[in-house]
């Protein structure tokens, strides 16, 4: 347990680390990859290029320091990070070099303000926080390995089918290479791909939401093809999957993970998705329908137009067949064909006024997923509508928004 002096030093200096969080994160990764270049195989290089990983690290350090005496207060943050660590294979022996590098980054950025006393206090605090993560991740590794159909590390899966869902989204149906049963999962969870791409020096790790209800003898992920940018990891993996991976090829995946899951509840549920953010919510919708649940469902999806509208027909068919499911579509840039055929319910983005008009009750459970900007807009709208925090659930395709709770 940390002594009182250490606690006071950490909590009093946490705001300073927050102020310099981006610079500390940037310096940390510069040092880390010099010391351990093999970790390029673990960290998302696209997020590195965009500075998102650096900002996420800085925020995590600040949050942990601020709540050092009560990590339970940031339990959602801790659990999300632990789930990601288990999925990509972070091991206890990697924590010391991370701690050492983090303290050096703090010293480099803060200079003389980072006294030996402060650095020693944060060193103790890091050890305490690392132990919390290691213990939680040990439990997750054990549960994952011993569950029916579970496995350790990355396992080979055969691409059984490739199906185009829209102009830029393709679904991949995956079956285990060994023919054995596969682990089940909770609606909303994701698979983690280790992509070994020809011509690439390092492997690329990506998380892809499972887009089908659990209980099948296959997994399905639905991947949006991102634009490729020269000399940047942006789009490398999605283009590899779309253009190079063929039916019969094998890919490496770790077992399902994630804390963004459909809760068992009788309350009405509102799903709000933007673009490819539809994937985990579709898994949830399919689950409700397949389990014969009578829960009232509002499904809101926002995208550019019908050309980018993934699973358009599937959701419409569900809504037409089930009286408890109601679907709404928002197109930001509808085509003339969309306008003539009334393909959508609202032109423009999902906003406060639209949600106020369609939501069934403040007591509903709200699940939303999409880009960072989309997430921030929906979060603000729901809070403005007076939705209680315990009824708001989100997944985000960004390490920063994955961490933030505010």
What do these coordinates show?
This protein has 406 residues and is an alpha/beta fold. It folds into three domains: 4-146, Orthogonal Bundle (Globin-like); 155-257, Translation factors (Elongation Factor Tu (Ef-tu), domain 3, Beta Barrel); 269-403, Rossmann fold (3-Layer(aba) Sandwich), CATH 3.40.50. The protein has helices at 4-19, 21-35, 45-50, 52-66, 75-88, 95-110, 116-146, 236-244, 278-290, 312-321, 336-341, 352-358, 372-384, 399-403; strands spanning 155-164, 169-176, 190-195, 204-209, 219-224, 250-257, 269-274, 297-303, 325-331, 346-347, 365-370, 392-396. A six-stranded antiparallel sheet has the order 4-3-6-1-2-5. The protein has a six-stranded parallel sheet with strand order 10-9-8-7-11-12, with helices on both faces. The protein is globular and about 70 Å long. The protein starts with a helix and ends with a helix. Residues 399-406 have low confidence and may be disordered. InterPro entries: Cbr1-like_FAD-bd_dom, FAD-bd_FR_type, FNR_nucleotide-bd, Globin, Globin-like_sf, Globin/Proto, Hmp, OxRdtase_FAD/NAD-bd. Residues 149-406 are annotated as: Reductase. It catalyses: 2 nitric oxide + NADPH + 2 O2 = 2 nitrate + NADP(+) + H(+); 2 nitric oxide + NADH + 2 O2 = 2 nitrate + NAD(+) + H(+).
